[in-house]
Amino acid sequence: MGFLLAGGKSSRMGENKAFLDFGGQTLLARGLVELGSACDRVAIVGDPAIFASFGPVVEDVFAGCGPLAGIHAALTHSSAELNLMLAVDMPFVTRQLLSFLFDVASKGDAVITVPRTPRGLQPLCAVYRRDFAVVTERSLKEGRYKVDAAFAGLQLRVIDEPELVRSGFPEKSFFNLNTPQERQDAEDLTF
Questions:
Q1: 24 in the Ramachandran plot: left (φ > 0), alpha (ψ -120 to 50) or beta?
Q2: Domain count along the chain
Q3: Tell me: the pLDDT tens digits for 157-179?
């Protein structure tokens, strides 16, 4: 199952990133199309009052606690063993990359299958097994909200940059838009 994480506050952008027009469509529409091409079912993680007209919506149980809370909500809601999480602000992610991540995850038994670029792990474009929900809940209850900090002691399948590049996925695939400057920088790149 695929989940589009769209519950962020977008405070650095100054407007809801999900509705930014980028390359002729909103980031929300683009994310839903790419996820829908790689996953049999897709849901948005965010505020139902904002996103209900766009498809199934899962609301955070731990509101205001960042992306880890979104991952927790998705995994708690999901009946699938493998669950792909994608942040709404990643305009260069393709269905091919998402399918590749699922394929790698399905060939092993790692709890998390996560790409790593020179900028670090990319936990908001990764595949999680449903039982990671237990870890996320414990972390959130303890006030620890950093996603990759919750990975400690778990079996990971890290897909490093050389493997990503060999498979046709450059670092640009993981570019995300948090500020107006990053949006401008992204518009200077080509799809």
A1: left
A2: 1
A3: 999 999 999 999 998 899 887 76
